[in-house]
Amino acid sequence: MSTASTPLSLLRAEVLSATARHGRLLVTSSATIDVLKAFKNGQVSSKDVAEWAEFIDANEDVDLEENSHLPDVFFELSSPEINGLLDVKRATEIISLLSESRE
User: Fold this and answer.
1) Three-state helix/strand/coil letters over 16-72
2) What pLDDT digit, counting tens, does each position of 64-93 carry?
3) Rounded to an integer, what is the distance from CA 20 to the centroid of its chain?
4) CA proximity to 23, closest of 63, 71, 70, 65
5) Is the whole model's pTM more than 0.85, yes or no?
6) Which residue in 31, 29, 6 sits closest to 18, CA to CA?
7) Which of 33, 35, 74, 102 has its CA 20 to 30 A from that of 8?
8) Can you give the residue ranges of every domain in the chain?
9) pLDDT at 1 (0 to 100)
10) Contacts of 86 (CB under 8 A, 6+ apart)
């Protein structure tokens, strides 16, 4: 499969397009949960999630939704060399954490 057609590559392209049109993009807990669910379902790899999180974290035109957990989640996901690769158990824990904080 070519990199250009992966779900996360398409998302990166959408982010760049949206920021070009509107200046800023807001990443929500729901969007983050969707990416983690895609990981759990085998649609994307832990490496894909790390690259996506790094792209979001490093992009100055992207803001994170007001959620006390999102900055820490993005640091964890974007730093597998520090925090280890994402696994299904941890993805489930992060989904629960983000879901609870939305209520």
Assistant:
1) HHHHHHHCCEEECHHHHHHHHHHHHCCCCCHHHHHHHHHHHHHCCCEEECCCCCHHH
2) 888 789 999 999 999 999 999 999 999 999
3) 20
4) 63
5) no
6) 31
7) 102
8) 3-102
9) 34
10) 39, 46, 49, 50, 77, 80
Q: What is the DSSP letter of 97?
A: H
Q: Which two tokens stand for residue 47?
A: 């490496």
Instruction: Please answer whether residues 28 and 74 qualify as being in contact, where contact means their C-beta atoms are separated by less than 8 angstroms.
Output: no
Give the whole-angstrom CA distance, residue 95 versus residue 58.
Answer: 22
Where does residue 49 rank: exposed (0-12), middle (13-18), buried (19+ CB within 10 A)? buried
Residue recorded with tokens 């100055």: 60
> Where do we find the tokens 């996506």?
52
**Res 41: pLDDT:** 96
- The residues pairing with 26 across neighbouring beta strands, listed in sequence order, are 63
On the 0-12 / 13-18 / 19+ scale of CB atoms within 10 A, 7 is middle
β partners of residue 62: 25
Q: Rounded distance, CA 4 to CA 92, Å? A: 27
